[in-house]
User: What shape does this take?
Amino acid sequence: MFKFFKRVKTVVGSELNTMLDKAEDPVKMLDQFMRDMESDIREAEAAVAKQIANEKMLKRKYDDSQALVDKRMQQAEKAIEAGNEDLARRALEDKKNQQEQAEQLKASWERAQEDSNNLRSKLDDMKKEYQEMKLKKDSLKARAESAKTRTKMNRTMSNIGGDESRQGFERMEEKVLRYEAEAETSEDMSQESRSLDDEFDALDDKDSVDDELAALKKKMNKE
Assistant: This one.
């Protein structure tokens, strides 16, 4: 009556490898499998509830039929006491019919009760298996996430120091060296320019001193 978690086999069996080979996301697929199992459990619970209701209905009918059997027996006894043998006979005839019906209802009720017990047991097994699969799912998800993280890290690390990165560093190093050379050249040119200006400034200072010396000597009549 139940699928009994046919889909679960895809989680714990070889289909998990097939799933991975097809590049399906294990985390999403495992979540989907759990939703499928939850759906199976809800269907099973509904079936069990329906069976229990059927069992209770049959039990009620059996009880009513058996109560009528007891009632007809009491009526037959009462008719005998009243001296009405015909009425007693009719009561006993209906009692016999009711007894046959009660026995049939009892057999149906007992079968329904057995079915209910079996379904309850299967439902319990399904819930237990679901909990086991839930723990397994959590473990598989953690392993899948860990594997994806390791793969990403390995790919990242493999790119560090690769040809493209190394060539990029070399280009940047050449640029820095070029900047430094340009800075040194600019500084040398600036120093050369300052030295030339300094010589002219010194020459101007010398001319100024010579003029002042000549003026002083003239003043003192030393010329």
Remarks:
- The chain has a mean pLDDT of 80.
- The longest helix spans residues 85-159.
- The chain has two domains: 6-160, 162-223.
- Residues 162-223 form one domain.
